[in-house]
Structure formats: structure tokens, C-alpha cells
């Protein structure tokens, strides 16, 4: 077997609409699928959103709001990302800092979404 990428992962959230608004403001495309389920699409990947009281037939053993930690990649200069976050009153938890991404060095800032999930926004160095 050869795995070739990540299609999607799931975040369990308290308020799907608040989560959609937060990530849409960061540039995600909000998509609806299945029985009016919501997802956040970034390029060719997505994050499916499960409300904490969901009725999805198979979920993580202990789905918990705020237990996520992910890195979203941007082409926007980090200085512009910082400015946009501050304009929207999104607290920057850390950064900018140098990190190692999946394919090389990145410069990142960290924020938390409405559920407290840690969200790294990183830009690959030129």
C-alpha cells in the first residue's frame, strides 16, 4: 500500500456555524455535503465538522471539541497574515516562528479557533 496524501480529517465542534465563520474569514471555502453536513475546504483538502452531539455513525473514540492541532498552508506573506488576524481581533498565540513543514522550512503563526483547537498558519520559505 502506498498512501499519497490527506483527503480530510474531522474536528468535533460546539458550534458549527461559529466554526464556519472563523475559518471562512481565514479563507476556507464552506461546503455542504451529505445530510446538510458542513466542511471547510482548503485547496484539495477539507476538514469535516462534527457537532459535539452529532449523529454520524462512526466517529473517533472520544470526540472532543478543542482537541485538534493542525497546520494550514498559505501563500500569503506571514506579515500580511498577522495583520489580517489582528484586524479581525484574532489573538496570535505564538509567532511568527520558524518550523519544519511536511516538505521543508516554514514560517508560522499560531491561533486558536472558537473551540480552542490550535491552528498553525504556515508559509513555506521562498
TrEMBL record:
Keywords: Dioxygenase, Oxidoreductase. InterPro entries: Glyas_Bleomycin-R_OHBP_Dase, Glyas_Fos-R_dOase_dom, GlyoxalaseI/FosfomycinResist, VOC_core. The keyword Oxidoreductase applies. Residues 5-124 form the VOC domain. Pfam families: Glyoxalase (PF00903). SUPFAM superfamilies: Glyoxalase/Bleomycin resistance protein/Dihydroxybiphenyl dioxygenase (SSF54593). It comes from the Archaea. One of its GO terms (molecular function) is dioxygenase activity. This is Catechol 2,3-dioxygenase. It comes from Natronorubrum daqingense. The lineage of its organism: Archaea, Methanobacteriati, Methanobacteriota, Stenosarchaea group, Halobacteria.
